[in-house]
Amino acid sequence: MDRIVSLIVILLTPFLALAQPRKGEFKTELTFRAGAAVSNVTPFLGNEIVGNFNTPPAIHIHDDLFVRCLVLDDGSVRLAFGVIDNVFVREEVLDAAKELVYEKTGIPTDNVMLSSTHTHSATSAGGKGAKRVAWDMGEQFDEYQVYLIRRIADGMVCAVNNLAPAQIAWGSVDIPEHVFNRRWKMKNLMTNPFGGRDQVLMNPGRSNPNLVEPAGPVDPELSFLAVQSLEGCPIALLANYSLHYVGGVPSGQVSADYFGVFAKKIEGLLNRAAGDLPFVGMMTNGTSGDINNVDVQSEAVRYEPYEKMSLVATDIAAKVFSVYQKLKFQDRVSLDSKSAMLTLGVRKPTQQMLDRARKFPELTKGDRYHRNEHIYVERIIDMQENWPDSLTIDLQVFRIGGVAIGAIPFEVFAETGLELKEKSPFDATFIVGLANGGFGYLPTPKQHELGGYETWLGTNRVEIHASEKIVKTIVDMFGSLRD
Fold it and tell me: Which residue in 365, 362, 344 sits closest to 442, CA to CA?
């Protein structure tokens, strides 16, 4: 008898193995599930706070930084979002985090979307000093990068642990009063760090008599996904708004900016009931490369530190909540994802730029073009000597029921986001910027012609037609998910 049982087991073993879900695949269930968690990624004091041309050391933590995680599971496909409170995180750091997430949870790396909020009051996750904007692919991770990788994975593990039967809904609301195009066409041409002339100036100041008109549009739409338990208890809300950041943070202080305030405000409005599962509010950065919160045509108002970001976050949370109350949740949606690797040319300095850069230390103050020329001298020499002739970026698209979410590893201009929404075959679409890496600004070819900070070599690093290639690739991926 024992020999017969052993023979049956031997014969069935190959078929039993085929029946087991492989790593990255999940046994089909009828129930849609969601799980959320936060993982603290507050940096060590003393590290450089980045986001501006000056980089003061962190001397105080005003509010903790987090990676906010959401995992969705339709029974056969599992998708994961991680929204990190940082100005940007290098692609290789995020790749390492995705590999660790896969190792610990089985979620395929292509199904993990990691993005930065772009707070300007966090310390660097891209290396220290000039290394932050230099090409250093393949170099050893520093202490904070290693810490960040582990904490991203920890957050994802906890989100998976919290998976529970859920319902999902989505919505949007236009909130134009907080978004302004910061690039302005000027009556008089403006000098750039390379001795050229620009038609556009970023952040031209209030009531500047040289103003003509904004150089591009804004995207006022705030889109969001919401998940709740079958009993109606909120689990998570993932929002997307094309607003750069708000600021108002004293020098040397660490803060998640309005992204973090929004997460707290929406939690308070939803009045999360006490229970075992946490609620996680999260705000992703949209296509805000040319958008800020400063209306240069209005009178200046003096705000106390942190006051304005709280006002903005409170207002948009209230407007989201007003839509949330009318949502109709679904018990089940299907999930899918696509990714594509796109190779882009890297811009290089002209010989004239290089010649001037190399003799820059000898120039007197009166011979210099621009107050930030010394910064761009370093950057263009690095672009020439260290950057490759091309680089390959990771583009990613998620489908969640009738929603399409695209991910781009740049600071994307609002007009590109609007174009993608217009060309998307989905009823609801939003684009997450600084996702799966951060390669600088992504102006359109038209904006390159106008010049301005976001188009300068060293701030923008890829070919002039990169935005067009990215739009085409993502639209094609949208179409394949729709079929």
Answer: 344
